[in-house]
Amino acid sequence: MSKLSQRHLLGIKDITRQDIELIFETAENFKDVINRPIKKVPSLRDVTIANIFFENSTRTRLSFELAEKRLSADVVNFSASGSSVKKGETLLDTVNNILAMKVDMVVMRHASAGAPHFLSKHIKANIVNAGDGTHEHPTQALLDTFSIREKLGGVEGKKVAIIGDILHSRVALSNIFALKKLGAEVMVCGPPTLIPKFISSLGVKVELEVQKALDWCDVANVLRIQLERQQLKYFPSLREYTLYYGINKKMLDNLDKEIVLMHPGPINRGVELTSEAADSHHSIILDQVENGVAVRMAVLYLLAGAA
């Protein structure tokens, strides 16, 4: 079996194009598995995986947990709320106590950028970053690019616009790394206050008008406005954001071409997307959710080194 070049998945920046293509090939096989009557394989039998989430997450944790169970792994879930972390225990002590129970892999979400990188230097278990602060969310980028590849037949040469709150998004950075490695052209679009000043140094275009971004792209990946991460007011009101950056079905139907519409969820319906747009024929949002399980199965399987 081919192996990944890394023993952890900490970010897309750290892995190669060959790693991404291997994950996609493996995910295709697992997608066949999850669409058959018996949706389970014994690949990770006797492997124990701990999902350690220091931030609330419903869909990412559910997707990982389902992927782990489809692979027949033993699964334990840890949530920071109500744990010893609230009593002052350090991150390393918390994780070492969990690993002492003979855990083989850790799936970790943390509010601080770099937390999984820190852990990877101190523990022996394989680590999958399920989102660290506003830094990276590698499995979301993998499932997004896998979904584009599935829908359009490839990623090379495709024009992808990432629209919305770029500044606070870990999805945006991981998507940019993945798309660039696979040969796509990338544009970011949003209010000037929500676009980081360094972003053009990553080789992406910057556009401030959403209609121009839609006219340019083959794929619009629309991001959620993350009000919970904003300490300051970056735009006057949600109503004004929607007026200038919200996407509705009329805008999509008026294009002289078909585009693919994506969103990592959860959607603020009526803010970044209207319901008509989110549920239109342009949308592959539910395909992204389905592909998330297959891609996470592939990542866990490859990192575990299962034959």
Quick overview:
The protein is an alpha/beta fold. It has helices at 17-34, 59-70, 91-99, 115-120, 138-152, 170-181, 210-216, 238-245, 249-253, 275-278, 285-304; strands at residues 48-53, 74-79, 105-110, 126-132, 159-163, 185-189, 205-207, 219-222, 260-262. The mean pLDDT is 92.
H and E order: HEHEHEHEHEHEEHEHHEHH
Q: Total number of helical segments? A: 11
Low-confidence spans: none
* Overall outline: globular
Q: What strand line-up does the widest sheet have?
A: 7-6-5-8-9
Describe the structure.
The chain is an alpha/beta fold. Helix content is about 40%, strand content about 15%. The chain has 11 helices and 9 strands. Strands 7-6-5-8-9 form a 5-stranded parallel sheet, with helices on both faces. Helix 2 (about 60-70) packs across helix 11 and helix 5 packs across helix 11.
Keywords:
single chain, 307 residues, 9 strands, globular
Helix-strand blueprint:
Elements: H1 17-34, E1 48-53, H2 59-70, E2 74-79, H3 91-99, E3 105-110, H4 115-120, E4 126-132, H5 138-152, E5 159-163, H6 170-181, E6 185-189, E7 205-207, H7 210-216, E8 219-222, H8 238-245, H9 249-253, E9 260-262, H10 275-278, H11 285-304
Parallel strand pairs: 1-2, 1-3, 3-4, 5-6, 5-8, 6-7, 8-9
Helix pairs in contact: 1-11, 2-11, 5-6, 5-11
